[in-house]
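Design job #97: recover the sequence.
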């Protein structure tokens, strides 16, 4: 395979694309793994990383060896990311408890939810004002 890639000068493109896919696939795997299994996933990432590192040393094909090395170090990165995801999850739980519980604040999430809640409240006040003043828009449609 390496001869074919070298002949057409596309080895770098294949390695770059493979690296992009590996790194792109590892990020959601780390997040979902930490969410469903907690800190235990770091041992799986360690075992997978060591296995792929050993395979990258054993395989004779250059492109395959490089991609296995990228996957191995993506697993090692996953160990660190699991710890960061656990800390971020703990912060999300704390911040969720401090959010207001008014229904109008939950129209949209985050800051936009707060803005929409304020706009919703102002519209309700305006509608109540119109109803109390007795303005009837049907009378003006003659």
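Job complete. Output follows.
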């Amino acid at each position: 395979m390496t001869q074919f890639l070298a002949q057409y000068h596309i080895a770098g493109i294949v390695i770059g694309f493979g690296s992009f896919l590996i790194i792109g696939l590892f990020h959601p795997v780390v997040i979902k793994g930490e969410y469903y299994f907690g800190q235990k996933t770091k041992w799986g990432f360690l075992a997978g990383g060591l296995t792929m590192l050993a395979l990258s040393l054993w395989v004779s094909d250059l492109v395959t060896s490089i991609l296995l090395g990228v996957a191995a170090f993506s697993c090692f990165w996953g160990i660190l990311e699991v710890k960061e995801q656990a800390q971020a999850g703990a912060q999300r739980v704390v911040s969720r408890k401090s959010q207001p519980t008014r229904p109008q604040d939950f129209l949209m999430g985050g800051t936009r939810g707060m803005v929409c809640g304020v706009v919703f409240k102002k519209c309700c006040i305006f509608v109540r004002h119109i109803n109390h003043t007795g303005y009837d828009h049907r009378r003006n449609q003659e």
